[in-house]
């Protein structure tokens, strides 16, 4: 992605331009875009930068389709990388699967969407073995987004105990199966997601002036 | 009558940021009016999702500028951004759970947050970027 002078007359210095000769279609750019969120909006669900082969609108559709088939209190949605371990047989184990060109093609807001909107009880990210990402930095950057070290951050309100990662080699089927069962057992123990009940303590206390938006009382309209 | 009126205090002196401040205020005012109508053509989830998405993008722009200029208050300013985004997500989920939403109260709270944020964090940023 190259930043070039603006062509649409808007008061921004530059605009993003993809060099097709260098692009590997990893989708990490779309995963990093702050407008790539799955939540409904007034305008069409299109990100500032999007993958023609797999736009975020389709990732949302695939996520909803995969989770619609799940049942129980240990429903898991796996977002997996197509460059690593073969995930074809995973759906038969009772998990939902969405495949991406790279695990970092997933905007973190999708994890928020799936867990806190209760489409699944947990999300597992499956990618290449650590240090061996097919697209070089995808695994590392996704981990940094989860840790709040690289934008876009996974929102602090998303309970981290409902997220698991498995960075495995293509031959790591046994490891993946073990991680999945372990995650499933933890989710069973936790029970369904409860807003507030699952919430980790805030890392930064709100300043008195800026907590006003959250303190909203509701009434029937 | 607009919920939030443009004030020059909302300007940070960077064309792109000021453009987005105007757009966000316009969005809040416009959707507040549309939601109030008995024949509203948008839904609350649409409105909240749009606000959330546009604010996320705006904060990303401001944070990019702050990092580029090595702004000394970047952690505090970004923390305020993160708190608002978490608060909006809370409200989005509260609506989905209860279907209760006072759009007037929410819009007023949002207006209060923005005017406060613009006149404190953003004003200081403007001063530093000059």
Spatial shape of chain A: globular
Structural class of chain B: mainly alpha
Q: Label the structural class of chain A.
A: alpha/beta
- Relative helix content of chain B: over 70%
Task: Choose one word for the global shape of chain B.
Answer: globular
Strand percentage of chain B lies at under 5%
Main sheet: strands, sense, barrel of chain B: none
For the record, the CATH class of chain B is: Mainly Alpha
* Number of strand segments of chain B: 0
Helix fraction of chain A, binned, reads 10-25%
Strand line-up of the largest beta sheet of chain A: 4-3-5-6
Counted up, domains of chain B total 1
Mean pLDDT of chain B: 83
Largest interface, with Cβ-Cβ < 8 Å? A-B, 39 and 52 residues
Q: What are the low-pLDDT stretches of chain B, counting only 5+ consecutive residues below 50?
A: none
Order of H and E elements of chain A = EEHHEEHEHEH
Can you give me a brief rundown of this structure?
By secondary structure, chain A is of the alpha/beta class. Chain A has helices at 28-32, 56-68, 109-116, 138-146, 173-190; strands at residues 2-5, 14-17, 76-81, 96-100, 122-127, 163-167. In chain A, helix 4 (138-146) links the parallel strand 5 and strand 6 (163-167).
Task: Write up this protein.
The complex is a heterodimer of chains A (221) and B (130). With 221 residues, chain A is an alpha/beta fold. Chain A contains five helices and six strands. Chain A has helices spanning 28-32, 56-68, 109-116, 138-146, 173-190; strands spanning 2-5, 14-17, 76-81, 96-100, 122-127, 163-167. In chain A, the strands form two sheets. In chain A, strands 4-3-5-6 form a four-stranded parallel beta sheet, sandwiched between helices. Chain A has a two-stranded antiparallel ribbon with strand order 1-2. Chain A is globular. The relative contact order of chain A is 0.13. Mean pLDDT of chain A is 85; it is low at 200-221. By secondary structure, chain B is mainly alpha-helical. Chain B has a single domain (13-129), classed as Up-down Bundle (Four Helix Bundle (Hemerythrin (Met), subunit A)). Chain B has helices at 15-36, 44-68, 74-98, 103-129.
């Amino acid at each position: 992605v190259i930043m070039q002078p603006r062509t649409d007359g808007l008061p921004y210095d530059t605009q993003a331009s993809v060099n097709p000769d260098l692009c590997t279609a990893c989708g990490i750019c779309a995963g990093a875009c702050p407008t790539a969120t799955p939540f409904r909006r007034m305008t069409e669900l299109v990100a500032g930068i999007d993958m023609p082969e797999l736009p975020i609108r389709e990732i949302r559709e695939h996520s909803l389709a995969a989770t619609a088939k799940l049942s129980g209190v240990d429903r898991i949605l796996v977002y997996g990388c197509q460059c690593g371990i073969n995930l074809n047989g995973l759906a038969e184990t009772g998990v939902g699967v969405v495949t991406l060109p790279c695990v970092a093609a997933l905007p973190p807001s999708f994890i928020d969407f799936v867990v806190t909107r209760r489409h699944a009880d947990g999300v597992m990210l499956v990618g290449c073995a650590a240090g061996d990402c097919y697209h070089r930095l995808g695994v590392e950057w996704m981990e940094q987004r989860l840790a709040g070290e690289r934008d876009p951050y996974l929102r602090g309100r998303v309970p981290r105990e409902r997220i698991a990662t498995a960075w495995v080699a293509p031959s790591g089927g046994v490891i993946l199966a073990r991680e999945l069962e372990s995650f499933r057992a933890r989710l069973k123990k936790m029970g369904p997601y409860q807003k507030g009940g699952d919430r980790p303590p805030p890392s930064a206390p709100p300043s008195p002036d800026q907590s006003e938006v959250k303190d909203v009382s509701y009434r029937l309209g | 009558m607009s919920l939030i009126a443009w004030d020059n205090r909302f300007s940070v002196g960077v064309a792109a940021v000021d453009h987005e401040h105007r757009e966000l205020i316009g969005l809040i005012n416009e959707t507040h009016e549309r939601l109030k109508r008995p024949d509203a053509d948008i839904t609350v989830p649409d409105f909240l999702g749009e606000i959330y998405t546009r604010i996320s993008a705006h904060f990303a722009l401001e944070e990019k500028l702050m990092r580029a200029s090595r702004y000394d208050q970047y952690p505090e300013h970004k923390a305020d951004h993160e708190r608002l985004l978490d608060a909006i997500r809370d409200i989005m989920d509260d609506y989905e759970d209860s279907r209760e939403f006072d759009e007037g109260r929410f819009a007023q709270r949002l207006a209060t947050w923005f005017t406060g944020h613009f006149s404190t964090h953003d004003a200081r940023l403007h001063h530093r970027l000059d």
